[in-house]
């Protein structure tokens, strides 16, 4: 049976004039084409909490963990901005990604994802990404990097951060359906066996995300990372001198955060090449300080101010809180404001 729809009858005030609601907010003149939610300048990223094993159950979505630089792509009416995890504009450092984002055919969007450089096996190579940018402090623009999007925070005038992940992923999949260029979709995977497969392939690990949660900034536990070979950022607080090692560096002294304080996590003496060691020695000598950042003693130690952030691969922790089988991967950009590992985060993840 077809039901005839009635036209809405306006509400009238005492004088018989139709009542009208006031606008919820004033229209932003710089964003005339956005009738709903104003586009944020930046969204503080959601971060994954480290756990030793993946969660179980249908409430979780799983992806491979990308070993690269966390970025947000802002597609705006006037162009594209690429923002780092620390809030810096790196559009000029990733021109290929920016150009691909312009061609996606959407008016407004914010994509959350990771910039990576893939090796011959199709795996993300952090060292290759660093080299493509000219190394730490380099000014090169990376034309080799691609972007894998894993979340959609804003789309076509709508703020999506308060919607559940399943909805955001559905919209993202439709938006990037078939994209194969420098901006692609980071595919979901079946949780069963994914960690074992990732470890067998030599990947860093996997990420588990709760399907029903909104996008919440910081380490809330909505996202969990499970690593095959652990890799984190630590502060270099000095080095051990050596008469036989390359450029005089026997090992780098490392520290992590514990709240607002620094705590020693041991040292790393493998993974850096002669060129790396030469740069590290030259830079750390400029940062020399007589007072160590962390209370460690050694007659061959040279202490440095906490400035250089190193990405370190390791196999676990000793009982006294030092890294096991640590290996140097490269330096993090200071401008990227990479988060140095916090021991309280590790404790929360247990």
From TrEMBL:
Question: Keywords assigned by UniProt?
Answer: Ligase
Membrane-spanning residues: none
Q: Which SUPFAM superfamilies match?
A: DNA ligase/mRNA capping enzyme, catalytic domain, Nucleic acid-binding proteins
**Keyword Methyltransferase: yes or no?**
no
- The question of whether Membrane is a record keyword is answered with no
A Pfam family reported for this protein in Swiss-Prot or TrEMBL: DNA_ligase_A_M
GO molecular function annotation: ligase activity
| Protein origin, superkingdom | Bacteria
Task: Give the span(s) annotated as Disordered.
Answer: 1-39
The residues covered by the ATP-dependent DNA ligase family profile domain are: 138-227
Question: InterPro entries, from UniProt?
Answer: ATP-dep_DNA_ligase, DNA_ligase_ATP-dep_C, DNA_ligase_ATP-dep_cent, LigD_ligase_dom, NA-bd_OB-fold
Enzyme Commission no: 6.5.1.1
For the protein in the UniProt heading, the enzyme class is ligase
Q: List the catalytic activities from the record.
A: ATP + (deoxyribonucleotide)n-3'-hydroxyl + 5'-phospho-(deoxyribonucleotide)m = (deoxyribonucleotide)n+m + AMP + diphosphate
Q: Which PROSITE patterns match?
A: DNA_LIGASE_A3
Q: Which residues form a coiled coil?
A: none
**Family, similarity comment:** Belongs to the ATP-dependent DNA ligase family.
Q: How is this protein named in the record?
A: DNA ligase (ATP)
